Target: Pyrroloquinoline-quinone synthase
Amino acid sequence: MNAWSAEEFEAQLRSIGEKRYHHLHPFNERMHAGLLTEEEFRGWVRNRFYYQVNLPVKDAFILTKLPGREDRRQWIQRIIDHDGRTGDEGGIENWVRLGEAVGLTRRELFDGDSVLPGVRFAVDAYVDFCQRKPWLEAVASALTELFAPGLLSRRIADVQQHYPWIAPEGLEYFRARLTQQPKDIAHLLDLVINHAESREQQDACVRALEFKCDVLWSLLDSVELAYSKKP
Ligand SMILES: O=C(O)c1cc(C(=O)O)c2c(n1)C(=O)C(=O)c1cc(C(=O)O)[nH]c1-2
Model:
């Protein structure tokens, strides 16, 4: 089979988000409609924290495989964005602020034992994928970030509107990501579109992105099952 053109390949990748990204998950839709209880919101924040702390870990695995120095220099910034530096504490610390704003302690957030089994399973599968797969597929799996900015801006507005018990400082994580994400997205697209030359490689990238959508979807399935009371 012939390789897709760059435009067609990008369109194929983007179409996955319209069908499978976690903005469509019922738990996420209830969050935006203002229907989550405090317990459900806390459950989401606590379990998503396990995803957050693992982002720099999977990015470190990918870093070891990137072939070029210039790409490694850019990729390192992703790890710093989450792990932070002295004086600029980074995304994980911002997520701790969100946790505190919803009534969780730092200790509860870092207590790995309280993570739901399904969340651990999904996030560990993502880290394992990035460790095992060729760098192109591991990078492609991060392309869910393409679909995040629209969701993040909606989340900031809707959480402020519907959950006044959450202090606005708690949402700093999402505001910071909106500034950081455009450069991440440009780099991801550059790496994937320009290096997937054959149709086989392009198909593998599409499958990697589908897999990652499943990771995010499963995370919300688990949170919903554990925290949402059935009528
Ligand atoms: O809040 C969200 O909905 C959301 C989703 C995603 C994503 O699509 O994986 C990421 C983020 N946020 C995010 O903040 C972030 O730093 C991030 C990194 C990655 C990744 O896979 O490398 N995804 C995401």
Observations:
- Residues 6-227 form a domain with the Heme Oxygenase; Chain A fold (CATH 1.20.910.10).
- The chain has eleven helices and no strands.
- Residues 22 and 217 are 5 Å apart (CA to CA).
